[in-house]
Amino acid sequence: MEEARWYVVHTYSGYENKVKANIEKAIENRHLENQILEVRVPIQEVRELRTRQTKEGEEKVWKDVQKKMFPGYVLLHMIMNNDTWFVVRNTRGVTGFVGPGSQPLPLSETEMFNLGIQASNMEVNVETEFKVGDTIKVISGAWRDNISRAVAVNPSKMTLTIMVETLGTETPVTLSFSDVIKI
Questions:
Q1: Of 86, 82, 117, 65, which Cα lies nearest the Cα of 2?
Q2: What domains appear along the chain, each with residue ranges and CATH number?
Q3: What is the pLDDT of residues 42-74, one digit of tens each?
Q4: How far apart are CA 134 and CA 157, in angstroms?
Q5: What is the pTM of this model?
């Protein structure tokens, strides 16, 4: 299986959050959660000096605001294949991938580091209450009230895998930590 990389798509200016929401909805509808892992609109905290009117006249006030780091761009952590390319490229508001011609170009490790994105080959240190072998109860979604044992735990993605019996066959199902509890 191919490795997930970070890609950048260009959007209409001001549509970044709408594009993010549209892509996340397409991921959910087409069940691409294992191929398009994350969608980001990078923002930064900025302190601005603003003028406001008071009874005594004008007053200068510092205000903390959030601004998009790259207006017109959205970052995607995904496995590039025909399906994911098609879904992203045909999302309303997306004008194209960043790269030469129509060829998407993944971010380099240096670019990822400068953006504060941890490279996939660096160790991710996330603590979790779940471990392989734990008894798990599903509390939401299609598998609600199902009780099973965890067969895999992925702390960096905040998911775990359980085995569910379907039509007499055990099938692995990956769920978000928020959809399960440990019993």
A1: 82
A2: 5-114 (3.30.70.940), 135-182 (2.30.30.30)
A3: 888 878 888 888 888 888 888 888 888 889 999
A4: 18
A5: 0.58
